[in-house]
Amino acid sequence: MIILIGVAAYFLTLPPTPPPKPTTPATTPVTTPTKPTETSPSPTTTVPAKKTLRVFLTAPIQMDPAVILDWASYQSVQNTYDTLIRLGLKGDIDPALGLAERWDISSDGLTYTFHLRKGVKFHSGRELTAKDVVFSIERLLKIGQGPAAIFAPIIDKVRVLDDYTVEIKLKQPYGPFLYALTTLYILDSEEVKQHIKPTGEYGEMGDYGKEWLLTHDAGSGPYKIKEHLVGERLVLERFTDYWGYVNPNAPDEVTILPAPETATQISMLLRKEIDITYTLPAESIKEMMGKEGIGVSNQLFGQQFVFVLNTKKPPLDDVHFRRALAYALDYDQARKAFLEELSQPAIGPVASYIPGAPKGVKYYTRNLTLAREELKKSKYYGELDKYTIELWWCAEAAFEEKPSIVFATSVRELDPRLKIEVVKKPWASIYDATFKIESTPHIMVLLSTPWYPEVGSYLEIKFHSKYAGKSLVHVSWLLNSTIDKMIDDALATVDQSERFAKYAKILDVINSMAPEIVAFDYGMAVLYRKDYIVSWPAGEGKPPYGVQYMYDFRFMELKG
How many other CB atoms are found less than 10 A from the CB of residue 385? Predict the structure, then answer.
């Protein structure tokens, strides 16, 4: 999950409004799919015949909503599919943007009834109904990948009440359930069934359409897949029958490409051959600031620059060794190597400005005296020279290199016997390695973000054992039953203040275990053509509202 740099102005912004507390029956007002007042800028340019957008981004690995794990895939999937619940640019749930125009919650917090808007068309031309919602949820739970880790333990049953009404019953209360639904995408059930490969692991559902959905879509979103060459190019085109708001001057076609080397990105941006790129190192971003026609957006979505430690791989299986590394890191130099003015110190493995983040938490700072004391307590202290620690950073994200070098330098200063190797790895190799303890390196750079904007999302996806081998961010392999129980208890707490207090206790315990070292919180710095992109809400200093929405093309306005 994969991001860059946030400005201080963001930290003055109010946090997202919490979802309705499921303690008493609640109903949201019916809304119409007109222009969302707080999310959509008024168009100011003439609509051209065809507007194209070209984006350098980590190439999507998956386009199947039941399988997606990585941040880049989410950027594309959220443009092609809709969800029952969606967040607006103020960070709150916006009924004008989701498939559910209103919903009711039982007093015990276990039954959610969603009333769907009528007239929503899939890209196939079919109307979306309740049976598609039930199919999508059941498919997700059956496949058991991606967002299923959130929903499988809590959803009891889902059923159609009528064509436009769906009921979801939970096994136990789940405080942030509405926020979590922003990660559950709805598929065209008939379209998927028509493309099922008969041989597969899902019985009569064969492969459940997984092979077809890798390069096609069955969505109702504002864009549809025109072409997908996996790992090479994804082309999206506007869906003209989209039910909701799309800026009249939004892109008609979007091409997403994997980012080349830094010099090529800059050259193509200046020659107007590419419109957006985000993987540049700090010095390149600084160099481009103030260039005519070039804008720098600062997008805050709960990102953290993290060195994740494989807690099951010696010598990192020793907590004292991990704490020694945490005290050894030169945090100030790591921030300077990234982009210091658009980052801030961390409080641990949750961004300090996300709802539920505790105040006044003390985190590790550089202290070589304490680092050496912890190192001496380690069972590996007498044989430090027997281990070579590998630190992987992503080749497609050049900004990861210098902070990684700072980490390695800090470790070598801790004890000259320590051997650490900084390794540049392509994203595809990192992706493949993260699903097994044995193939996960000692340390890897993770650009960590929540699936939905609340601390519980971080804690669950990064540290709960149910995500082991199923999440690209659960690579510390903590596998701690006590932590699991604490997270489950917090998420089952409906009262928000009580839930947040429990998050603080969990954070204290996790910090003491040092399964990862958070170098800093940051926002994503993205270079773009401001002479062409007239308006881009996600890039204009809006509050954090959901990392998957960063590249939400429907709200962009391009110059004619």
Answer: 11
The residue among 177, 158, 164, 272 whose CA lies nearest residue 527 is: 272
Backbone torsion region of residue 209, taken as left when φ is above 0, otherwise alpha when ψ lies between -120 and 50, otherwise beta: left
CA–CA separation, 535 and 545 (whole Å): 18
With CA atoms as reference, report the closest residue to 142 among 64, 201, 193. 201
Query: In angstroms, how far is the first alpha carbon of the chain from the final one?
Result: 33
Q: Which own/partner pairs from 105-108 qualify as long-range (CB within 8 Å, at least 24 positions apart)?
A: 105/20, 105/22, 105/25, 105/26, 106/22, 106/25, 107/22, 107/23, 107/24, 107/25, 108/22, 108/173
Give the separation between CA 316 and CA 309, rounded to whole angstroms.
7
- Smallest CA-to-CA distance from 44 within 276, 294, 252, 247 is with 247
In this prediction, residue 3 carries a pLDDT of 34
Whether residue 218 contacts residue 186, with contact meaning beta carbons closer than 8 Å, is answered with no
**pLDDT tens for each residue of 297-355:** 776 667 889 999 999 999 999 999 999 999 999 999 999 988 777 788 999 999 887 88
Burial letters for 280-294: b for 16+ Cβ neighbours within 10 Å, e otherwise?
Answer: bbbebbeebeeeeeb
How far is the C-alpha of 321 from the C-alpha of 319, rounded, in Å? 5
Kindly tell me if the per-residue pLDDT of 201 is higher than 70: yes
- What pTM value is reported for the model? 0.75
